[in-house]
Specification:
- By secondary structure, this protein is of the alpha/beta class.
- The protein has 2 domains: 156 residues, Rossmann fold (3-Layer(aba) Sandwich); 52 residues, no CATH class.
- 44% of the residues lie in helices and 14% in strands.
- The protein contains 8 helices and 6 strands, in the order E-H-E-H-E-H-H-H-H-E-H-H-E-E.
- The longest helix has 16 residues.
- The chain is globular.
C-alpha cells in the first residue's frame, strides 16, 4: 500500500489585496511542519500540489524544513480551491439585504461573519442556487475526483506522496473517499486547519482515510497559539 499525506496550505493573507500568498505566520507554519516530518524521518517519493501560489509557497516551506530539494513537483489543478470570492460577490449582488452582508460591511475584520456567509453560500452552491460563477459544484467536484484518480494511479511507483491543496478541495477529496453527502462536505471544509494533514493508505483500486485534520507540529501548549483556519 502507498501513503498519501494531503496537507492544507498554510495561513494565507486574509484581508490583503492578494489572498493567494502566505502570511508571515503561514511561512513559519510550513517550515514547522517540514521540521516535524524530518524529525520523524518521513520522506516522500513524489510532491504533488495545486497550482495556486499558496500551495507552492507551502510546499517550499515544508521542503525547507525537511532540508530537501522540492523543485520536482507534479501540478494537479484539481487540488485548487473553488472561487469563494466570485461566489460571495454574486450572492451579495442578489441578496444585499442579508444581515450577514451588513455585518461584514460594519466590521470587515471579524472573520466569524465571513465564515458564516461562506457556509451559507457554499450550501446554496451545492444546490445550484448561485448564479454567474466561473465553476459549478458539479464541475468542481469532478476536477477534485480527477486529481484523486491521478494520485491513486501513482500507487505502483510511489510509496509515499506529499500533496498540498486547499480546504475545499481537500474536504471534497475526503468526502469522495468516504462517500458522504455533498452538504456534509463543507462541514469538514470550515473546520480544516492550516497545514493540517489528512492521511490515507491506498492502492490503484482503493483509498482509505486513516487520519483527518491533524497538526502534530502545532499540538503543544506552546504552539497552539499558531493554529489558524484561513
Amino acid at each position: 500500500m502507498s501513503e498519501l499525506y494531503l496537507v492544507r496550505h498554510a495561513q494565507a493573507s486574509f484581508g490583503a489585496a492578494n489572498y493567494d500568498q502566505l502570511s508571515d505566520l503561514g511561512h513559519r507554519q510550513s517550515r514547522w511542519l517540514g521540521e516535524h516530518l524530518k524529525k520523524r524521518n518521513v520522506t516522500f517519493d513524489r510532491l504533488v500540489l495545486g497550482d495556486m501560489v499558496r500551495h507552492h509557497e507551502t510546499m517550499s516551506g515544508i521542503c525547507t524544513g525537511m532540508q530537501v530539494d522540492g523543485d520536482e513537483r507534479i501540478v494537479l489543478p484539481g487540488l485548487n480551491e473553488y472561487s469563494f470570492t466570485a461566489m460571495t460577490e454574486s450572492y451579495t449582488q442578489s441578496n444585499a439585504d442579508d444581515p450577514l452582508i451588513q455585518a461584514i460591511a460594519d466590521n470587515p475584520d471579524d472573520k466569524r461573519h465571513h465564515f458564516r456567509l461562506l457556509r451559507k453560500v457554499l450550501t446554496l452552491w451545492t444546490q445550484d442556487k448561485v448564479d454567474n460563477i466561473p465553476e459549478t459544484w458539479s464541475d468542481f467536484k469532478g476536477r477534485v475526483a480527477d486529481a484523486q484518480q491521478q494520485i491513486q494511479s501513482m500507487a505502483g511507483s510511489s510509496k509515499r506522496i506529499l500533496a498540498i491543496g486547499s480546504g475545499g478541495s481537500i474536504s471534497t477529496f475526503v468526502g469522495l473517499v468516504l462517500g458522504i453527502p455533498d452538504e456534509t462536505i463543507f462541514d469538514l471544509n470550515l473546520q480544516y486547519k492550516n497545514t493540517a494533514i489528512s492521511h490515507f493508505f491506498f492502492n490503484t483500486n482503493k483509498m482509505n482515510l486513516t487520519g483527518f485534520n491533524s497538526i502534530p507540529h502545532l499540538d503543544t501548549n506552546e504552539m497552539e497559539q499558531y493554529v489558524t483556519y484561513g
